[in-house]
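Each lists chain and fold; for instance:
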Amino acid sequence: MRLRVSAVQYHLHTIDSFEAFAAQVEHYIRTADEFGSEYILFPEFMTTQLMSIPDENGKARSIEALPDFTDAYIELFQGLAARYNMIIIGGTHVIRNDEGKLLNAAHLFMPDGTVGVQPKLHITPTEVTEWNMGAGDGLAVFDTPKGRIAMLTCYDIEFPEIVRMARAKGADIIFCPSCTDDRQGFYRVRYCAHARTIENQIYIVTTGTVGSLPTVDFMRLNYGQAAVLTPNDIPFPPRGIMVEGEINGDMIVTADLDLSLLHEVRERGSVTTWRDRRTDLYTDWK
C-alpha cells in the first residue's frame, strides 16, 4: 500500500478575521492537492493564530478564547476534506472537555465528514503553568483508507511507551504535529521522533509552526521544520529522512510512503526491533 503525504510548515502571522485564517489553510491544502497528496498534516497550536484577531477592545485574545472558535474550525476543515477528497490532520486546536478543562487536541478530518480527536497526552510545564492545560486520558488509533494511523503531539513523541502502544494497536504511521520556539526544543522532538521510527519500524510525519505572533503570549517565536522520517534500514534513505523542509520557511513537503516496506523490514530487516522486543519483560498495552 502506497500513499502520498504532505506536511505544512505553517506560517504564523497576525490576522484580523477567521476568514483570513481559512484562506491561508486552504492555500496549503490546494497546493498539496496540486501535488496529488492524499494526507496533509498541519502543526500543533496552529489555531493560536486566531488569538491575534483583535477583540472588542482591540487587544489579542487569551488562550481561554480559543475554544470559542471550535465550531468554525471543525466546519472549515470538514468542508475542505470533502472538497479536496483529502485526509487532513488539522494540527491541534484548544478545546474544552466536559469538565471545562482546556485540552490541546489533534483533529483528524476524513472526506466523509468523520472527525477523530486525540488530546495531547503529555503536557509541558509551560502548557500547565501558563495556559492551565489538562492532559488527555487515552490513546486512539484511526483506520483510514490506506492504513492505520495515530496522532501524537510534540511532547508525546518524547515518551517511547506511548508510541509502542500505538504500534501495538496497529498504527504504521504516526502524525506528529509540533510547536517549538527554539532549537533545543525542536531537536528534542526531532531526535526522539527518529528514535521512535527505529524502535517501532514505523513512519513518522512531523511538522512545526514557523513565523511569529508578536501580540500573543508564548507564541512570539517559532522554530520549525517539516519532515517525513523512516526506519534506518536498506529500503529507506540512509539518514532516515525521506524529505524535510527548509528550517523556518513558509512551505510544504511531500513524500510517498510504502507501507509494504515496513512489513518487510519487520520480518527480515538488518535489525528487527519490533519483532525482537522482550514482551516477557515489558508487555505491550492493547
In short: The radius of gyration is 18 Å. Helices lie at 18-34, 70-84, 125-129, 160-168, 183-200, 259-268.
